[in-house]
Write a structure and sequence with these properties.
The structure is a single chain. This protein has about 160 residues and is mainly α. The protein has one domain (about 5-155). About 75% of the residues lie in helices and about 0% in strands. It contains 6 helices and no strands. It has helices at about 5-30, 35-60, 65-80, 95-105, 110-130, 130-155. Helix 1 runs antiparallel to helix 2, helix 3 packs antiparallel against helix 4 and helix 4 runs antiparallel to helix 5 (about 110-130). It is globular and about 50 Å long. The two termini are about 30 Å apart.
Length: about 160
């Protein structure tokens, strides 16, 4: 079904990658100081990367095994649960996503984007917030999920015969 609607879905992802960060930028206008910097430099860029990652994934979805797409969904949900304090998880959703995206994409441009944003998130986590624990756990969880996805896509399909 996704393959049938790939082009409109990719157009929607491009729109989301522009509109959502702009909404956070607009929200930043109404706040001052560290809250403004947080929205402009930590939250808004994340959504640029997320929508770019989804755009790349949808573009080559037929090359992935269904189980690999399940891992994508798990990575997305785990990366999002900390956003808006949905759940008090011990890992950084930003670092989880950046590590996962960098390790699982074949797009050099996307890798460069997420690595640059990971560097920025690292500065926030380690220098501004002094939070090495969630930073390291986010990277570890993202890398573990990336390893699972890579292994799933590398395994050959199980051939079954009809009884």
């Amino acid at each position: 079904m996704i393959i049938e609607h790939r082009d409109p879905l990719r157009r929607a992802l491009v729109a989301g990658g522009v509109v959502v960060p702009l909404l956070f930028a607009a929200a930043a206008v109404g706040v001052n100081g560290s809250a403004r910097r947080f929205l402009l430099f930590y939250i808004a860029p994340f959504f640029v990367a997320f929508f770019a990652w989804a755009w790349v994934r949808v573009g080559r979805i037929e090359a992935d095994r269904p189980a690999a797409l399940v891992v994508d969904a798990v990575a997305t949900v785990l990366g999002a649960v900390r956003f808006g304090a949905l759940l008090p998880v011990p890992f950084s959703g930003h670092m989880l996503f950046y590590a996962y995206a960098a390790l699982t994409t074949r797009s050099t441009r996307l890798q460069l984007l997420v690595l640059a944003l990971a560097a920025e998130a690292t500065w926030y986590k380690l220098v501004v917030w002094r939070d090495p624990r969630s930073w390291a756990l986010g990277i570890a969880v993202g890398a573990a999920l990336a390893a699972a996805r890579i292994l799933i896509n590398r395994t050959s399909p199980v051939l079954t015969t009809a009884p």
